[in-house]
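During the first year of the project, the team set up a workflow for recording each protein of interest as an amino acid sequence followed immediately by a discrete structure-token representation. This format lets reviewers and collaborators read both layers of information side by side without switching files. As required by the reporting guidelines, we include two representative entries from the current panel. The first entry is reproduced here exactly as it appears in our internal archive.
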Amino acid sequence: MRADHDIVEQNLDGQEAEDARALLASIVESSDDAIIGTCLDGTIVSWNRGAEVLFGYTSQEIVGRNAAVLPVPDRRSEVGIIIGAIQQGRNVAPFDSMCVRKDGGTIDVSICVSPIRNAAGEMVGTAAIIRDISQRLRNERNLRETEDRFRIMADGCPAMMWVTNGEGRLEFINRAYREFFGANFEQLAGLNWQVLVHPDDAVEYFEACDRSVREQAPLRSETRLRRADGEWRWVSTYAEPRFSPDGKFLGHVGLCPDITERKQVEQALRSSEEKFRQFAENIREVFWMATPAAGGEILYVSPAYEQVWGRTCQSLYENPKSWMEAIHPDDLERAEGVLARQIQGDPIKSEYRIGTPDGQEKWICDRAFPIRDEAGQLLRVVGIAEEITEQKRYEAELILSRECADVANQAKSRFLANMSHEIRTPMNGVIGMIELLLETGLTAEQRRYATVASGSGRTLLALIDDILDLSKIESRKITLENLSFDARAIIEDVVQLLRVQASEKGLLLHARVSPEIPPLLRGDAHRLRQVLTNLCANAVKFTEHGEVRLDVTLDEPATVRFSVTDTGIGIPPDRVADIFSPFVQADASTTRKYGGTGLGLAICKQFVAMMGGSIRVDSREGHGSTFSFTAVFEPAVPGQQLHASQQGLLVARRGMLRTARPARILVAEDHVVNREVVLALLRKLGFEATAVPNGAEAVQAVEHGAYDLVLMDCEMPVMDGYEATRRIRASLHPGTPVIALTANAMASDRDRCMRAGMDDYLAKPVDLRRLADALDKWLPARQQAQSLAEHPHGPVPTF
């Protein structure tokens, strides 16, 4: 701005000059900027209203004072410099400064100074226009702070970030951008971008960039860029256009995250899906995938569906329930129940029949399992359906074969039971009579013959027992007892039983029991004795010189190890693996020295397995063998009733000698010889008994006389022992103990006796020791019952 009053007055007449001055004064006075006039020495001569507002001084307060009072103290020298420059005819460019208000506050200002000349063109003063620029500076500072925050944020972003102008040229790039390309802004701004974009992506990428600039639209693309190390990396570009407040297009701001790993995963997924599709479409099973909802959408079904169901895959996509329409009516309800569980996300396996359009009936095995997200939400259900028609047919044939085998096995068991009965009946007479004969006065020669006959009979009986045991094991009809027993007594009994035979051969037979073995164990003492007897008898049989030793040790708190060691002939290495098989012997030749059926070790192996253990053999041909096995027993509580076999041992150790008792015993036996044997055995034990030939007479005898005990044969004419027992239980003497005497030795026979109401069971041939045990067990109970009946208020006192 120039102020030159003299020139104005020179060109105008008096009135016009006055009007011009008035107009100029009005303009100066109405300006929002501060307009100040000074002399060349800096004295203020004019002060408009804008100056009053800006500085707070009125015209009266400031006119006449030097303008040096307006700048802040450290910038007051600027006034003299400006006046000096104007006096020398030099121009003063507009500049920014800082002034002080009347109240002491400071303000940022922009100052423009012009000279004032008189009519002669001489400079007589200055005119300064001062404008408040505080708001502008604050805006500039805010902008710089905003830009700084944006730059910090952008440099902290792991993805490349950039800003372009309206022509698409770079204006800003962040640290990730610079590091990716290994260059600064100036270098990147001058680069030929085509060399940084993969050739296969360049055309499409640059067309997308040009289009976004022309259309001032967002930019979306995925492309490969060459990193500073030369590696091509996939990046995704997200750019949005930016506009000024008045709507002018300013360019784009964009983000380019590295998506190489995602692309690799997608590629691996596509490869996996392709492999899966190839697999699913080339297997005979039907693979399917569906949404988890009733009647949900079928997402995928493999082509095998068309071969199995006989319907097109497209028909299933169009009607997801069509697969169920093919299910056999008898299986439909069950299949619907399975489907309901499947929709809830349960893994299921189901089998059902379907009918194909050409009339075939097929069996299907369908397995389905859920697919869930990380939160456990059910996403879909997938499954594999397999045709199992041939398998079902094979299973039916197996079931039929098994049923036939069961029938054959039952027939074999019945045959063995019948044969056992038929053989045991005469054997009872043979062995019983020989035992009685041995109790008479015989010559030495007669006793030797009788002893041999007795031993042969018992050998034959052992053979029958082995065959029955093997049959019962094969038909799974053997169960182990679980009673307390004294293991040391069992071992002593086995050794005593075989010591005579060992002594005859000059062998030393002895046992060593570890002190760690508990006094009482709980298990099946009878089967344990059977295994030990078999192993020890074999050791004695196959040993000619030396010794047989039985060692018993504790492996674990409940596991006992039994080892039978001999110095016998040993076993050839090629026969060791076979000796535990039925009917197999180490020496199977017709010239073998040692006899046997080959059943004993096979039965021992089965019994040991049932007792929770295992059996093995260590042998050297010509140097002996060691058979060892383990058995698991439960701990026994002291004071529990001993195993019945050991109660019998106690009876035997008392010598089986009893004085005559006031006990009435009835024997029901149809076989004359067996009847005589039983009566003789009872007399041997000190009892007199009455005998009847059938069950009907036994019932009559019990009804007409108070018997303390009945020994009842099971197979008799007129009335068998089972029916007779049932009638005794319904008679006036239902509590009379009834003990079965039968040649039927199967476990099922014992159960049948118990169901008929019998109290105990003795298999023929009747063993004197077991008979004594049974009488000792049941007669006291009978006598006690009689005593209580005679003295209901307690025992009669004696003096």
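The second entry, processed by the same pipeline in the following quarter, appears below.
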Amino acid sequence: MLKKITSPEEFFGFQMGSDRKMARWDKIVEYFMLLEKQSDKIKVINMGPSTEGNPFLLVIISSPDNLANLEHFKEVNAKISDPRGLLEEEIEDLIAEGKVVICHSMSLHQSEIGGTQMAPELIYDLVTRKDEETLRILDNVIGLMVPCFNPDGQIAVTDWYNKCLGTEYEGCPLPWLGSWRAAADALMLNMIESQYIAKILYQDWHPQVHADHHHFGSYGPRLFIPPHCEPIRPFVDPLILRELSWYGAQMAYKLEEAGRTGVISDAMFPFWGSFNFHWIGNFHNIATVLTESASANLATPMYIHSSQLRGGGSTLRGFAHYKPQTNFPNPWPGGWWRLRDIVDDMKIAAWTLLDMAARNKITILRNAYLKGKRQTERGAEGKPKAYAIPTFQHDPLTATKLIEKLLIQGIEIKRAKKEFIADGLTYPKGTYIVFLSQPKMGLIKNLLGRTLFPDDAWSRESDGTPITPYEAATDTMAEFMGVRVDSIENHFKGDFEVITEYERPTGKIVGMSKIGYVFDGRLNDSFKATNILLSKGVKVLRIDESLNLEDAFFPSGSFVASAGSEDFLKEIAQDCGIGFHALENELEVKFHEIKKTRIAIYKHYYGGNANEGWNRLLLERFEFPYVTIKDEEINNGNLTEKHDIIILPGALITDEKLEEKYARAGRSIPKYPPEYCGGIGKEGVENLKKFVEAGGTLVTFTGACQFAIEKIGLHVYNVLEDLKPKEFFCPGSTLKAKIDNSHTLAFGMPKKALILFSNSPAFNIVPSESNEDYEIIIKYPESDILESGWLIGEEKIANKAAMILAKQGKGKVILIGFRVQHRAQTHGTFKLLFNSLLN
């Protein structure tokens, strides 16, 4: 007798997407576990705990026979995706026996709840329907479902929504970050959730399609589906673009057939987007389908007048107005918009992909083979031939982290077994080589090579005004990390071995000492070591001048751990890869002692502060102790009693600033409970000034620098403040910078480095009677400033300051105008922040 399979409506007590109803993640997990017991067409895998310890699920749906042979189909798919070394007839056999693998991931951002609410219903239909279409899907497709990309955020939002339900605040967004933003983490894979997804997509399964379901604003189209619009990012296989158009056309047809209105494609979202999961997958030769549904007020219906619906604007490429056009033939007329509408749209889109895959199995699998084959051929025939990552690096431990991240992306890396010569340079044994003759050639070029955003008709308005790229104009991983990567243009020979697993470096203690042990200040991980030692009560010094030992050189800014700490040093050497050198004699160079500092990070409400979240992640990774402070504590004062350093990690949002932000978007501020409103008031501004004057340090990034300049009263101005985009424009690009690494704030940095500039300020110091109180740590060169991305008006920042130390009373303000810790990705500039926290 067949087991009865429980429907979502029976289990949760309501239809998914019902007004004012949200299923919480723990109950959704419970439901999937129940389905696994009731059906032989579903397998539930707990990938492990999320950041906050909640289950991260992969749900696999297919026929019972397919589920019994998953490991075999993984192997088949891997060979089809990387066909190097296989004969044509072998490939044909693999295509014949293989299954199309489609991965759906839902609700990455915490407030984008529709996908996770849709998933139980989609999966229930797949395991219960008996029609020919469903059976064909189960036979020919292995469906991978990640029902919630962000379990921690989902739980936080659900609890917040239920808390506000029935009050005047019902449906308002969560005022803080329920979790760190995993969306922007596909490049560096810092979050455990991102690592789970990367393992599914790039290591285990190599799916042919990845559909990532999102939400966007409420006052435009109801649903975006592929294809994307211009411009395109280079080096993708053309079949990817054709596939996205193919899938998108069928999705649009099925949505129209179902009577769904307001569907748009080929607009708004360019194919050159930042390397989030819904873009980077295309360069893994996975057709990555992005859907974006219009948001309601979480699970509360939202009424929208037809006059409020809009198109136009430079960020809405291909969507000049809210009227019918070929890519938007049936506009939604307005009215009530509900979570159930989102569930319906997403479900139709998701089902369409599964049905297409089932009907076109051979074509899709052959395309997967062709993409891998052709990209490998392009890499072999084109230039460069390879990228070399030499053993000599400014920060060799960070270079090994680059290797780790490339391996997680599924990129093949080789290592030289002996010395070799390429392009006239001799590379030693141990040099890492990434050859372009592999299926992920396009990804490699974007991560390791210089990339320039197209400045053409697709990226400018008719009057020449530049159109802002989607988040970033470059995602050059090596440049962000400050790792030297050499482009090798010509053929070369050598003896190389494939690296299959990341080998974590380990350090050691060299010698024994009754004085202390010195370790290199150029290593980011030396700051982690220092924080661990301080937490153990070990005395740590920092040398202010370079130190030459008999067998090693240590630049200014290196650290010295006191003798007697050898047991701690052994543990740290194993954990961090740090090497410790014994001192035979007392230090004859200048030094100062590192003291513990009381660090606070400002956290504002109104939807949280992504920069604050990434800053917390970074500080925790490198063992910096900190506390979070909010508006109330700053407004109440007495800050010096508790804190030595206060970090303002991004643009501050006060009521005044927030009103401006929402007015520009044509919206009013969401109504939050009063305890989540206010921002830093006049009293808070005065208290921050008192904090600095009494000896505190205020560290500001990007937009927060202007707050410090204005409110603290610094003799500094932003030279870019009043310039129009046609005069100066630089979105998410790496720029060259000159570093004064003799200054304590730049200890451990090279004299020249790359920084990530994204609509950032650049500074001049105003002449005054206190010129001596201002020090320039970093400035831009005179010319040739752009490395990767897009820069208009380089002369506007030539010789201007990027980082300034301003003394004020007994304290100081540190202005860091660029993204020093952007999403915990910019390893090459981490030390500038770390130094600011040790002084």
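For the second entry, the following points were noted during internal review. The longest helix spans residues 339-359. The chain has 24 helices and 37 strands. Both points are flagged for discussion at the upcoming steering committee meeting.
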